[in-house]
Amino acid sequence: xxxxxxxxxxxxxxxxxxxxxxxxxxxxxxxxACPIIALLPPRKxxxxxxxxxxxxxxxxxxxxxxxxxRSVLQHLSxxxxxxFVKEGAPPNEPTVRVSEAVREQTQEALRRPKEVVRPSLxxxxxxxxHSKNWVExxxxxxxxxxDVGKGFGDMIMDQIYEVVNWGKKSDDED
Length: 174
Fold this sequence. Notes:
Layout: H1 13-39, H2 47-68, H3 72-77, E1 83-84, E2 96-97, H4 98-111, H5 119-130, H6 134-148, H7 152-164
Antiparallel strand pairs: 1-2
C-alpha cells in the first residue's frame, strides 16, 4: 500500500530572494577565502589544497555565471550567451539574445566621437604595422644592444619604461 504524501508548498518570492542572496554571499566568501586558505603554510599539493582550489573555482564560476550568464569555460571557448525567451511568449516567436543588446551598445559607443589623448600614437602604430621587415629590424636592434653591452634584462626594462612613459626613451639612451 502506498501512503499519500502531503503536497509540498512552493517557496514564496521572499524566500526565493533570501535563498539567492545567501547563495551569492556564500559564493563571494568562498571565492575569497579558499585561495587564501590554500596559500597558508604549510603549502603543499594534497587533497585539501585541490579541494580548496576546486571550491574556489566553482564559487568564482557561479559568480561569473550569475553576473554574465556564461560560465568560465563558455567565456574561454567563445560560446554564445544563453537564449532568453520572453515569459508567456508563443513557442515560435524569435528568441532574444543578450549579445544583441551588447552589440547595440557597442555600436552606439563607436558612433560617438572620442577624444584622442595622443594623436601621434595612432600614426606611430600605423607606421609600425606597415613595416614589412620588422623581424629584421628587431633582430638588428637586439644585436646592437648586445654589442653595446646591454643584457636582455636591461632591454626588457627599457621596453617597460617606454610603455609606462608613452614611448619616451629613458635619459641614459639620449
